Amino acid sequence: MLTLRLYMLQRITALLMAPLVLGHLAVMIYAIQGGLSAAEILGRTQGSVLWFLFYGTFVLAVAIHGAIGLRTIAHEWGGLRGPALELLMWGIGAGLLALGARAVWAVTFGGML
Amino acid sequence: MTTDVLKVTIERGPDGADVFEVPAYDSQTVLDVVSWVQQNADPTLSYRFACRVGMCGSCAMMVNGVPRWTCRTHISKVLDGNEVTIGPLRNLPVIKDLAVDMDPFFDKWVAAEGVHHGTLTRDDPIAPIDEESEARVEANAGIECINCSVCYASCDTVAGNADYLGPAALQRAWTLLNDAKDEGRAAILDAVSGSGGCHNCHSMGSCTAYCPNELDPMSAIAGLKRETARNFFRKGS
Amino acid sequence: MRIQDIERHDTDILILGTGGAGLFAALHAKQTAPEGTKITIAVKGLIGKCGCTRMVQGGYNVALGGGDTVERHFMDTINGGKWLPNQDMAWRLCEQAVVRIRELENEVGCFFDRNKDGSLHQKAFAGQTADRTVHKGDLTGIEIINRLMEKVLASGVEKLQEHRAVGLIPTKDGSALAGVLMIDMRTGKFRLVRAKTVMMGTGGGPTMYKYHTPSGDKTMDGLAMALRAGLPLRDMEMVQFHPTGLLAGDHTRMTGTVLEEGLRGAGGQLINHSGARFMFDYDGKGERATRDVVSRGIYAEMRKNNNPEQEGVFISMSHLGPEWVAQKFKGMVKRCADSGFDLAAGKVEVVPTAHYFMGGVVVDVDTRTAMEGLYVAGEDAGGAHGSNRLGGNGVANSTVYGGIAGDTMGRDVAGFTLREPDEAVLAAELERAIYPLTKKPDLVLPLRKQLQDLMWEEVGVMRTEAGMKRGLTGIAEVSDALMDVGVDGSNLAFNLTWHDWLNLRSLCDISEVITKAGITRENSRGAHFREDYPEPGAMEDSAFTVARLESGVVQVTEEPVQFTIVRPGETVLPEGAPETLVAAQ
Amino acid sequence: MRAAINRAHPLWVAFLIHRLSGLTLALFLPVHFWVMAQALINPARFDAFAAATSVNAAKVAEFGLVFLLAVHMFGGLRLMAMEFLPWSGPQKTLAAGAAALSFLIATLFFMQAI
Ligand SMILES: Cc1cc2nc3c(=O)[nH]c(=O)nc-3n(C[C@H](O)[C@H](O)[C@H](O)COP(=O)(O)OP(=O)(O)OC[C@H]3O[C@@H](n4cnc5c(N)ncnc54)[C@H](O)[C@@H]3O)c2cc1C
Ligand code: HEM
Ligand code: SF4
Ligand code: F3S
Ligand code: FES
């Protein structure tokens, strides 16, 4: 089910995410001390192009990566194939991207509008 | 041997299994146990074998849930107490009892371009080849495959993905890719990059873990992934 | 099951068996036959996964220079066969092997072991005067058959797998072959496949002996069919025994399988029941003597011993250093270990084991038989080896002549049309195959064992007239008893017990021929050793046996060997050529 | 009736862990995105949620997810190392090593968090 192109996309996004995940985890470990609050998060990210790019890339990568991953599982464990499978992948990808974009927007530029 | 009677459960089609009591002997393989049942207890039992020495790869079955070459598996190695359960090889259509249809396995072997692509003929001299060269060592690593389908049966990707070419066929493709005499490079890379190709492999390694000849299809498939990836960047397709 | 229930199927070229002979025939037929010719390959097992070519260990004999010549290979073959080979066939074998090995490497894609300089590595089997045997480790057959199998699978020939040929069906006047009756083993249904040409490559297989090496699917079906079809069979007394078969008890299929020749070559010792080496009592070369000599040595020691606990003799390697043995004979040591024996450090019980059948259908150098439309190649065909086959000449023979059969059929097929089968013969063959289904079911195995013990005792490594006569009586008893053993026919799909019955039927029929031919030959040549006639007789007067079925009775006659290329005492090697090119070990 | 398929060997276990972690992450991700979006759209709700996560059970769940992310990432890096770096034999050790490392990191995080 997985062609070379999907495979490459999955690996490239994975490699891309590796440093992002480490960064994200580091921030989390730092941030979580003394509890988490909206103000704190927003204080850090609000208006930052850097954070926007950081999480934007993350979201794009994870949408692609996760969609391809779930496609594989849906096929191998769920027996889904053909157009239904393609539809599922695109649906998940689009969904993840939309939700993720909304969140990224919210924590970076959202408040400034 | 601590027991003189074996309790042998043989799975027979979807309708269930039969249990047989088989006398135990010192030198006794799983194939001998199955043969004893057919020759002495139930003449209708179906199974397949030919060489009886691990060369033809036609006797593989599931033994206690593990795919094995039965002619080379000593029964003491698999007994659980004095019990053993034997079933038809996984991931292939069952013809009857323990005999499976191996055609899908071989169809995929051919689909993976698992066949020599040459330009030389019988009128040309035989190509000199350095056996120590890196490519030849790589090609030799997988060459002793007996196409027993044990790896194919062990692989969960095969189980879940009907198109997946499977470890043995892909290993053959990798061998050919490294064979200095083979001219089918483009065709092979193409064949292993399709929807059933090497990229479906999750490196779960059951193929390598269970191959009775200690071959390593998993690494061969990794080789194909590298080679196709390199090609991907080169050609950008 | 009635004659109307037989499914009819037509093709142009039909090939029986997928050993070296069958697969090469398919490839060559595809290359030679006119465009659009339909080629069908039918086999008792799965394509390429049955038969003995796949089990070839040692390798493939071919003269590739370095001092070795086709002439030398030919002389070794004639000497090895004790002047009984059909010289034209032996010559063609040696000459074409050179082409075939290049074809295997260049077109089929085999890879054989190389020397440091990149050229093919060759070694010498016993009985050869040059390093001649090409090999891939000690799994040469797997490499050859796997590559051939791929080619054939990819070539688009029609596949009839697990189809057992049960009868050759001639035309009404009996002059030509119309088709072959088969059982589709997976369903148990009968199928008559008509073809313009048929090649039989079912590989003989002397599995009527207590100890035997061939794969389980080989039970002399082809020769039994040929005999019934009235074809002459030659050299039927010639059964080659390999000296070292594994002995692991009669309840395991491992018993009889080969422990490779190289073990003795490397210095392995044979030890008898009293713990002594004995081979030097029989031959100056000791354990390194040729197969027939070592087999007789072991057999003689076994006869001297009356300890029921120990049947065979032991092969011991440990004095060479267990680690060295484990490394040098990795596959063999692992195989023994899988069966519970320690070859590297301990000793393993061995026994001579029936290995190869030199006898077979009389054919010409193009594989044609006396029956139009029928071609025979490989172990089913007689003549190329005479009384003894050299190690390495077996797979050369099947691949060379399989290819020739394919080419010959490819050319002949245009001149033939499909023929009408003799329905009476068809009905009789059907009747014969379903006979056991009409009888009360019973076990087949004890009769098979009875035949195997009998052949081993009376028509085995050493023979006498009295013994072989006892053998004949015994075979008749087994044969008759078999006709009272039925098979439960309620489900014929993949019914192995039915096929066990049919296997034993073929084995009984051919055992009788072997025994009668053995009685006829009143001298000792190669694989045939008569204690009552230990001398080989004058080479000039060499004759081969020919057996045929006449009015239902097997008749054996003798025909003089035609020395068409070289006469006994002469050689085709140039004057002054050295006796051997192999460095003394 | 059928004997269970037996595949107890390290690489297969590594595969299963990787798949299950990936699956769980993918299922959790939309929730995570939704929660984060609340940070702006409804800060009060977000803070209420964040407070709720200090409750132990929620914390363990959260720890689990970060753990899964670490496991999945190292598993994925392990996999890609196996695929792209042509080493053979000691892959099992590698698999084990990756799992151990991820566990270490996750534990570290857990201790920090508490
Ligand atoms: C263990 C072993 C080691 C050997 N080592 C060597 C060696 O090192 N060098 C060497 O030169 N030779 C060796 N030989 C001999 C060599 O294998 C044979 O001489 C040769 O391969 C025979 O080839 P074949 O094509 O005639 O028959 P096979 O390869 O035996 O093929 C026979 C085919 O016919 C099929 N068949 C049988 N009956 C029927 C039926 N009724 N209907 C349809 N199909 C049928 C079989 O299933 C099989 O596919 C060895 C043999 C054995 C057993
Ligand atoms: C640095 C981070 C990550 C890396 C290195 C990584 C790596 C990988 C790799 C290599 C695969 C392919 C597995 C295979 O073919 O067997 C994969 C599969 C997958 N990944 Fe990730 N991944 C990462 C992050 C994520 C994230 C954040 C998610 C959440 C959506 C995710 C979800 C999945 C899923 C669902 C699969 C499919 C699993 C399967 O096929 O078995 N991954 N990942
Ligand atoms: S790779 Fe191993 S397990 Fe797979 S078919 Fe070949 S020999 Fe059998
Ligand atoms: S078991 Fe299957 S998933 Fe890959 S590593 Fe082997 S082919
Ligand atoms: S019977 Fe040939 S491999 Fe087991």
TrEMBL record, chain A:
Q: Name one Pfam family in it.
A: Sdh_cyt
TM stretches of this protein: 12-32, 52-73, 85-105
Q: Is Transmembrane helix included in the keywords of this UniProt record?
A: yes
Going by the entry's taxonomy, the superkingdom of the source organism is recorded as Bacteria
Q: InterPro entries, per this entry?
A: SuccDH_FuR_B_TM-su
UniProt keywords (A-Z) are: Membrane, Transmembrane, Transmembrane helix
- In its UniProt entry, what is this protein called? Succinate dehydrogenase
Supply the source organism for this entry: Gymnodinialimonas ceratoperidinii
Taxonomy of origin reads: Bacteria, Pseudomonadati, Pseudomonadota, Alphaproteobacteria, Rhodobacterales
TrEMBL record, chain B:
Q: Please give a single GO biological process term from the UniProt record.
A: tricarboxylic acid cycle
Record-linked PROSITE patterns = 2FE2S_FER_1, 2FE2S_FER_2
Q: Which cofactor does it need?
A: [2Fe-2S] cluster
Associated pathway:
Carbohydrate metabolism; tricarboxylic acid cycle; fumarate from succinate (bacterial route): step 1/1
2Fe-2S ferredoxin-type domain spans which residues?
6-90
Pfam families, per database record: Fer2_3, Fer4_17
Which one of the record's GO molecular function terms can you name?
Answer: oxidoreductase activity
Assembly, in brief, is: Part of an enzyme complex containing four subunits: a flavoprotein, an iron-sulfur, cytochrome b-556, and a hydrophobic anchor protein.
Protein name listed in UniProt: Succinate dehydrogenase iron-sulfur subunit
UniProtKB/TrEMBL annotation, chain C:
Q: Which GO terms describe its molecular function?
A: oxidoreductase activity
Annotated Fumarate reductase/succinate dehydrogenase flavoprotein-like C-terminal domain residues: 448-570
Q: Which domain of life is it from?
A: Bacteria
Q: Which UniProt keywords apply?
A: Flavoprotein, Oxidoreductase
What are the residue boundaries of the FAD-dependent oxidoreductase 2 FAD-binding domain, all occurrences included? 12-395
**Active-site residue list:** R291 (proton acceptor)
- Tell me the Pfam families matching this sequence: FAD_binding_2, Succ_DH_flav_C
This one is known as: FAD-binding protein
TrEMBL record, chain D:
**Which InterPro entries does its entry note?**
SdhC_prok (IPR039023), Succ_DH_cytb556 (IPR014314), SuccDH_FuR_B_TM-su (IPR000701)
Glycoprotein recorded as keyword: no
Signal sequence interval, chain numbering:
none
Q: Which Pfam families match?
A: Sdh_cyt (PF01127)
Location in the cell reads:
Membrane
Q: Which residues cross the membrane?
A: 63-81, 93-111
Q: Which UniProt keywords apply?
A: Heme, Iron, Membrane, Metal-binding, Transmembrane, Transmembrane helix
Q: Which cofactor does it need?
A: heme
Q: What is its main location?
A: membrane
Q: What family, per the record?
A: Belongs to the cytochrome b560 family.
Quaternary structure, from the entry = Part of an enzyme complex containing four subunits: a flavoprotein, an iron-sulfur protein, plus two membrane-anchoring proteins, SdhC and SdhD. The complex can form homotrimers.
Mind telling me which PANTHER family this protein's record contains?
A: SUCCINATE DEHYDROGENASE 2 MEMBRANE SUBUNIT SDHC, SUCCINATE DEHYDROGENASE HYDROPHOBIC MEMBRANE ANCHOR SUBUNIT
Q: What protein name does the entry list? A: Succinate dehydrogenase cytochrome b556 subunit
